Amino acid sequence: xxxxxxxxxxxxxxxxxELVPALRRIHGDLHVVAADLRPLAKEKKSxxxxxxxxxxxxxxxxxxxTRYDINQVYLLAATLSAIGEKDPHRAWDLNMQSLLNILDLxxxxxxxxVFWPSSIAVFGPDAPRTACPQDAVKSPSTVYGISKAAGEQxxxxxxxxxxxxxxxxxxxxxxxxxxxxxxxxxxxxxxxxHQAVRHQKYTSFLPADTCLPMMYMSDAVRATxxxxxxxxxxxxxxxxxxxxxxxxxPAQVAKSIARxxxxxxxxxxxxNRQSIAxxxxxSLDDSAARNDWHWDHEYELAGITRDMxxxxxxxxxxxxxxxxDLLSPISL
Length: 332
What we know:
The protein is of the alpha/beta class. Helices cover 38% and strands 14% of the residues. The strands form 4 sheets. The protein has a 6-stranded parallel sheet, sandwiched between helices. Helix 1 packs across helix 7 and helix 4 runs parallel beside helix 5.
């Protein structure tokens, strides 16, 4: 049986940083090719194949797929919400053309599967705020959301017309210790941990009570891989699946951090990202994912806080003794 040869485009980003090693543990280092516009960090050069690539270069992308005999692609390259608002045309070009390039190559080269991430940003102020359903109206308020909403329709079109097997998840805000914040509106939930460890204080660009859907990266990576391994006949959604874990506010995560760093303080200086956050649901109904391929999350806020601090405290000036009961089991 032919081995799966996998290409991960956007491998140096927040998701790719953890997805690539997870895929390599299952498929083997040589069968997972990482690609990104950025050069590879020196310490990672022995981990497996890495190619510096512009995903908008169709010819280079096609050559790469042929060279490595690729049959699965994970397309993670994108300009996120807050960064995209600074240069909407550039964000649209990257987010949309990268997907169309991959879809056309998937059709041309008969790739077995493609993964492409969507986002809660496809929803806007007209969608229900709580338990937002799978098929809620989409009225995105950012170019990032507009590109994701359009991309979902392209995915369904290529399935209906060409039977390209492309699978997608509407990620909530993702929290990871492996990569710095990437310019998303939900990135307060990453940066707050970094600032807590470095400075024991944080200024939030969202108000204290803004509640948004969140997920730990370990859950997101597992969900992605489980979706890609699911039998095709079980996957009834051909646009993108709602994916949910927990929802919390900046004040709630600050309180969770303070259990370990008692000196930690937070203040608030809302900026233009507040209006983006206010247009998104505070929670999602992901029953389609739970029914179709038995998705379930593992991490709650307490576990996320503990794991983030355990990883980030290493190599900093903040000693373990400065974090109350960091290594002890906790319950909320």
